[in-house]
Amino acid sequence: MAAMPVVPMPDPTPEPLSQGARIIDTFIAPSKTFTDLRRSAAWWAPWLLMVIVGVAFAYVVDIKVGYPQVIENQISKSSLMQRQVEGLSPSERASQIQKRAVVTRVVYFALPALSLIFVAIFAGIYHASFRFGANADLTYGRSFAVVVYAALPEVLRGLLTIITLFAGVAPDSFNIQNPVATNLGAFFDQATSPFLYAVGSSLDIFRLWSIALTAIGFACAGKVKLGTAFAIVIGWFVFVTLVLSGLATLGS
Predict the structure, then answer these.
(1) What's the structural domain count of the chain?
(2) Is 7 a domain residue?
(3) Domain range for residue 139?
(4) Is residue 46 a contact partner of residue 149, using CB atoms and an 8 Å limit?
(5) Alpha carbon of 239 to those of 151, 154, 219, 235: distances in Å?
(6) Is residue 176 in some structural domain?
(7) What is the pLDDT along the chain (252 residues), one digit of tens a residue?
């Protein structure tokens, strides 16, 4: 009797993930999250989480440090800002600081919601780079979702900053642009070495984590080689870091 032919079983379809499961897997199993973006590019849950933590950060800075003190600290680290208030009477200086504090407070409370603008820009840059540079199988919506999920480590940095503020960080030493010492900027003086400080600040544990997640995300969501994805993402990271560090030097 002839043997029955063996029919290969189809590969099991991965179980769809909820947005909550995606958020968790971004930290423990990122390839599962980013592969699932090929099924659905929904991104509102991680963005909403980042908005909540961002607003909480702005509020805790307000009550624990105060935005006038934030401006005072920035002046002490910037030669340009020092020149701007130089020669002002005490009342004029206080007025200038108060005005800048109001603007800074509004910006930091609004920034989490406005972050979608920056996400849209970076998603467009990455989308074009991967589509034309690596022939990736991507839609813009999927690229947008990759960038949002890859930014989730910033939530951990925000929470860490909130914890340190409640733990009793000295208000006169708080730097709102670099609130926790998780990067190489801690080894450079912002006032005397603005370029090295800016570059060092970019080499942050949480930011590098996000860079790695971005590369993994585009590799999975766009079906490109992981090495190619890392080359594109790191290339843009280096370019943006050098440009922003140069601008920081000019504005110091």
Answers:
(1) 1
(2) no
(3) 19-171+181-250
(4) yes
(5) 19, 21, 21, 6
(6) no
(7) 445 455 454 445 668 999 999 999 999 999 999 999 999 999 999 999 999 999 999 999 999 999 999 999 988 888 778 888 887 888 889 999 999 999 999 999 999 888 999 999 999 999 999 999 999 999 999 999 999 999 999 999 999 999 999 998 889 989 998 899 899 988 888 778 888 989 999 999 999 999 999 999 999 999 999 999 999 999 999 999 999 999 888 766
